Structure formats: structure tokens, C-alpha cells
Amino acid sequence: MRSVLAKASVAVVAIGSLAACGGGSGGAKPSGSAEEPSAHASTAAPTLKLDVPDGYDTARGWQLSGKQLGQYAVLPKAGAIAVMTSQGSTYRVTLRDAVTGEVRWTGKPFENIAEGAAPGLFVVPAGGKEYLVTWSRGEQGEDALSKAKQVYAVDVYAAGGSGDAVAPAHHVEIPASDYGTGRVTDGGERLLIPVTDERTAALDVATGRTTTYDTDSLKAPGCSSCSYGNEIAALTDRDPVVLNEGAGAFGIPGSWDDDRIAPAEADPATGAVWPGTGGHLIARWEQKNGGSKNVWAVLDGRTGQVQASALCAKPFIGSAQAPGSALSPNGRYLVSDHLAFDLQSKKGYCFEETDDTKPLSFDTVTDDGTAYGTSLTKGESLTGTKAPVELSLATGTPKPLPEGAEVPAADLAGVGVFTHDEGNVPYLVVYRHKR
Fold it and tell me: For the segment 24-74, what is each residue's pLDDT rounded down to a tens digit?
């Protein structure tokens, strides 16, 4: 099984953070100047006419390019898109309205303490609100007498700010070990910050308070013999979800364990779990009685209740990456790599590779249950060739999109978000839904 704490903050996973410089098909038809505007100039109407699915109107929307781009993240509840840009070692975030592109607020500039890497950026939902998080890890505190110390520097912004130099609602610095390359990750409803191999800090983004857990003292519930190898897989707003990979056991101590909530087809002794988006967990078990499939499920993070599940072919080669996830803005649909779920009808669909079908992977899903992603044709390269696909969760049937079409990286507030490279200039293009 895969280490949970190796999960990078994506996208989650989910909701969550996205790379701003994704590749494009080259089918765009740009017009106007190719000069790079200043980082916080007003947005331009979409001059790029990308080949996109029929539901998007390429004549209505906005775009950013060049120095206006760095990393970006979407805030579905707030109907906003955050962009983090840099000037030397100084960074700042700008929050824009997702529909109009107008700037709602701009954050105060802050120094990046990491060497050779940009700060991390992602969105964490908590208490029905969204919080924008930036973080970096590096050395601080060196002077003529004192050596520098490794720390995590985390800034948390409330989505509802205003002004040209908005300060973070919380600035938190947490000691880090002098070795390793630990990352701050979205644990589900709090941030997971690996302090050392035995200690993990949980940061509540709503209050700025931290709780430190000694992982040696944690024990996966339902496993009386799990004295070693326990770790925090995810976080609710109050409790950690503890996993023991070797025993295939997980749950919240004193509340629920995977033996009691596993679907009927699952072997409860083979469980694994990852943080999903919007307070959900992504869980996996092997099929009972040595079956040839895996059982995947979406769980309620606080209760462990199975919200939807699917039987899935075991991959020919398992991924080393923890699955990310994305939730539709209305909260009904969830996609996670090769999986798609309707949480209202409790249906799940799986698109892992089989002898007859190519593997499909989904990045975003809309309020009407349309998921967008890619299929993979394996060739001589390690990654293979990707082709755009669309899935209706009403039927569970995917279909290919026209060759060269570009699929949205996110969908929120009646718009789709696309990334594209044109002439070595990165673009973020936002198209409105067709009327």
C-alpha cells in the first residue's frame, strides 16, 4: 500500500489546487498582442478560441496570461479563482470573481522561504466556508549567534476579504525537522503538517490553532495488535483518521472503524484510505474471498458512512500516487482519478484499464453530472498519449470528444476553467456556460 503522507497537495486533492501552466492542443486561435501584461492588470476578454466541449461559450469569459499567472486554485463556494504570482522571491495572491474576472482583493506581498521552489497554494473548506492557504518550508532565524531553523510558514486567507493589501487571517510558523522534504497537505478539514517522523501537526484553518499528534501513541481502531506503523491519513475538524497500512485497518479511534463500515464485497482486512475533498474520504479494499477486483468507496469523513461505492478492475500496474478528487459545486458528484460517483443516488463507476478498455481519468465534474477527463494510450513513453473524454453520470457511459478538444480543469459558478500554452506563453482561459 501507498504512504498517505506522501500525498502532495493537489487536488486532492479536489478540491482543491491546480497547476496553472497545463498543456494545450495547439488548436487555439489567439488574436492581439503576445506581450505579457503586469501581474495585476485587469483581465482581458477571451481572445483565445480553444476547441472545448459544446457546453462552453468561447465568446464570453476572460483570460490571464504571462506574468499574470503562477499557480491558481478555485473556490467553488465563493465563486472565485485565486492566482499566486511572483516578483523575485516575493509572492502575493489575487482573488478574482470567477464569472467576470474582476479582482475582489489582493494579498500583501510575502517572502518565500523555500529555496528553488514556489510556495504551495490550495483551498481548504472548513465550517461551510473556504480558506485560501499558501505555505513554504525553509530556514529562518539565523544571525551572528544563532543557527537557522527549519520551519513551515503557513498563511491562511479568508475568502471574503477586500482591498489591495489584504493580510492573512492567520500566519502560523511550525518547526520542521532538519531532514526530509515534508509537505503541508490538505487533510480534509484541517492541514496536515509533518513535523518529524513521529509527530504531526494539524492546523485548523478557521481558528489558526494547531494540535500536535504523537503518531507512536495512535492506534488504528479495530486492530488491537496495531502497535506499530500507525499514521494519520486524514483529519476531520475534531479527530484524526488513523491508518495502519500493514494491517489494512483505518478509522477514527473511539468512533468508527473500517471493519464495521466496509461494503459487503470488501475484505475489511485490506483497507486503505486517503483524504478527499469537501469532508469526504476515498477508501479502497480488495475484494473478499480473493476476488479479482478492488472495492472503492466515498466515505463521510466524520461518521465513516459509505456514500457510494464501485467494484473496479485491479490495475495492471498500481499508481504510486494517492488519488486526488474533485467535487461538483453543488456537492452531488465526486470524481477521483479513474472513479466517478453520484453521492445522491449512491452509484459509483470505475474506468480502470482492462483487457478491452483504456484507462480513463477525470479531473472535474459539473453540477449536472458531466465529468471531463482523458483516456490514456500507452506507447513508447512512460506517460503515453492522452485523448479527451466526457462522462455522463446519469448513464455512467463515457464518450470520446473530438480530437484536439481541451477539457476544463475546473468548473464552478457557471464557468469552465481551461489552461493552455501558446507560443511558450501560459494562459488561463475562463469560458461561461452557454445560455
Answer: 333 444 433 334 445 454 566 788 999 999 999 999 999 999 888 889 999
CA distance 391 to 112: 40
The alpha carbons of the chain give a radius of gyration, in whole angstroms, of 22
Residues 202, 210 contacting (CB under 8 angstroms): yes
Neighbour count for residue 365 (Cβ, 10 Å):
28
pTM of the model: 0.88
Q: What b-and-e string marks burial along 277-296, b requiring 16 or more CB atoms within 10 Å of the CB?
A: bbbbbbbbbbbbeeeebbbb
| Residues in Cβ contact with 423 at an 8 Å cutoff, skipping those fewer than 6 apart | 30, 34
Pairwise CA distance, residues 66 & 338, whole Å: 32
Q: Are strands 71-75 and 56-65 parallel, antiparallel or unpaired?
A: unpaired
Torsions phi, psi of 164, nearest 5?
A: -100, -5
Q: What is the pLDDT of residue 100?
A: 96
Q: Residue 78 is placed in which grid cell? A: 465563493
Residue labelled with grid coordinates 496495531: 226
Q: Read off the amino acid at residue 352.
A: E
